[in-house]
Write a structure and sequence with these properties.
single chain; 274 residues; alpha/beta; 8-stranded parallel beta barrel; two-stranded antiparallel sheet; 41% helix; 15% strand; globular
C-alpha cells in the first residue's frame, strides 16, 4: 500500500504547494480534489488549463509523486434534468483530466435526494450516470469508482450490490471511505469482505457519532478500527493508495497545515503504510 494525501486536506494552498509539502512530509502520492465544498474549493476542474496540467505533471514527476485519483464529487441526482446533464458532463471532463494527468481513478458520489423526490425516482438517474461515465472512463483508460456518502441517495454497502445487480455489464469500481459507513452504524469491514475485488482507492478518515449527529475527527480519535480494516485489505490483495482525507477542521479540530501533514503521515506509519 502507498501513502497518499488528499489535497482537500490543505484547501487553502495552491495544488503545486500541496504537492511540494506532501512530498517533503514523506507521502508518496497526492489525490486531487475537484469538488466544491462549503469550506474548500477544487484544486482542479475540467477547466484546468493545459499549462496548469503540465505543471502538475512536471511537479509529480520531479517529486516522484503518484496521482492515484481525482475526486470528481458533484451531485448527480438533481431533480432538474439540465443540472443532471451538467453534472455528468463535469465528471466526463474530470475523466479527461485524469487521463491527461496519468491518474488511474476518478471517483464520484450520487448527491442527496431533492425535496419532493423519492429514492425510486432518483435511483435510475444515478444508475444511468454511472453507466455513462464508466463507459467514458473505460475508453480513456481510467477506472470510475463510486463512493457511498452518509445522507446521500447512494450511501451504503447494500447500494453497491444493488447497483452491480442493476448494471451487470458495467465495471464500476469502489472508492472505499469507511468514515461515511461508520457514522451510519454500518460495519465498514463489509465493503472489504464483500467488495474487495472492486476497491481501487481508499480514503483514510475517521468517524464518530451517528448521522446526522456525527463528526469526522482526526485519525485515531473516532470509532473506526483501522488496523483491522488495513489487515483485511491486505489479505484481500489491495495494494493501492491509502489517502489521508483531513476534514476534521470543519468539526472544530483545528490543526496547522504542518500538523495535518505530520499527523497523517505518522498514522500511516502505525499501519505500516510506506
Amino acid at each position: 500500500m502507498r501513502s497518499c494525501l488528499h489535497s482537500v486536506s490543505l484547501p487553502d494552498r495552491p495544488i503545486l504547494d500541496v504537492m511540494r509539502r506532501a512530498a517533503a512530509a514523506g507521502y508518496r502520492g497526492v489525490e486531487l480534489n475537484a469538488e466544491t465544498l462549503p469550506w474548500a474549493g477544487p484544486h482542479v476542474t475540467p477547466q484546468t488549463s493545459a499549462d496548469d496540467r503540465r505543471a502538475i505533471r512536471d511537479a509529480a514527476r520531479a517529486a516522484d509523486l503518484h496521482i492515484p485519483a481525482v475526486g470528481a464529487h458533484i451531485a448527480m441526482v438533481e431533480a432538474d434534468p439540465r443540472k443532471r446533464r451538467a453534472a455528468a458532463d463535469y465528471v466526463l471532463g474530470c475523466i479527461d483530466l485524469a487521463a491527461d494527468l496519468g491518474s488511474p481513478v476518478v471517483h464520484i458520489l450520487s448527491g442527496a435526494l431533492s425535496p419532493g423526490h423519492s429514492r425510486a425516482q432518483a435511483w435510475p438517474w444515478f444508475a444511468d450516470a454511472v453507466a455513462e461515465t464508466t463507459d467514458h472512463a473505460r475508453r480513456k483508460g481510467v477506472l470510475l469508482a463510486v463512493e457511498a456518502i452518509a445522507g446521500h441517495l447512494f450511501c451504503g454497502t447494500d447500494d453497491y450490490h444493488r447497483l452491480r445487480a442493476d448494471l451487470p455489464g458495467v465495471a464500476f469500481r469502489v472508492n472505499f471511505d469507511p468514515s461515511h459507513l461508520i457514522v451510519q452504524g454500518e460495519d465498514p469491514m463489509r465493503v472489504v469482505d464483500e467488495l474487495a475485488d472492486r476497491i481501487v482507492h481508499v480514503h483514510l478518515k475517521d468517524g464518530a457519532g451517528r448521522f446526522p449527529a456525527f463528526t469526522f475527527p482526526p485519525l485515531g480519535r473516532g470509532e473506526i478500527d483501522f488496523p483491522a480494516l488495513v489487515e483485511g485489505l491486505r489479505r484481500a490483495g489491495y495494494a493501492g493508495s491509502m489517502s489521508v482525507e483531513y476534514e476534521a477542521q470543519v468539526y472544530g479540530f483545528a490543526l496547522s497545515d504542518d500538523e495535518i501533514l505530520a499527523s497523517g503521515r505518522d498514522f500511516l506509519s502505525t499501519l505500516e503504510i510506506a
